[in-house]
Amino acid sequence: MTTVTAKAPKAIAAETRLLAAMAYGEASTADDADEIYALASVLKRQRDARGYATMAAFAAGEPSFSFVVGDGNKRYQKFKKASDADVRADAGMNTAIAAAENALANGPDKSNGAWFWDGADIKSNYKKHFKVRQGIRFTEVAHNIYDINESSKLVIKYKITKKKVNGKVLEHKEELYRYDHVYESTAAYGGTIFWQQAPDYLKFTRAKEYK
Q: Which of 84, 120, 140, 196 has the fewest CB atoms nearer than 10 Å to its CB?
């Protein structure tokens, strides 16, 4: 009789583990798979757009993008302290590993091209929230999981030319462009709303879509 020895599970790669820990930490306690997958995709896309080769370099170089790395986030800390076996045994953390592997392989993107996200603070801090003050739009009613109002901030850019006529200086004011919001929703799962910047804002201001 031949005895078959079970192979030990493959160790989780450091890059996968860190991305998974960040996505897990940023996600709500619902452990919604779509939410975690979407967060992992956004984080990886931001890493690439900002020119970092690894998640560790990204986390160190952009500490304000994902605060869970340094603010004592309990879910992030739980993941970081867990052994590979503990991670595999926990449904939420194991989902985060799958989400990280998907993102690193440029797999399906549940965020639908998002570059940013927000949790419950967009409702609790609505009046002072940065995105709200810049203007937000929900592209689908289902994205408004916190039942908040859309907001506007009208920006109009003019070109002013001056011409002297009969000894008088006359001004001509020509509108070049306008936009009234910066952020548009792309998806929402669990406790997270995902965003990208509005096409008109990007076109007229030539802003970078990831900043």
A: 140
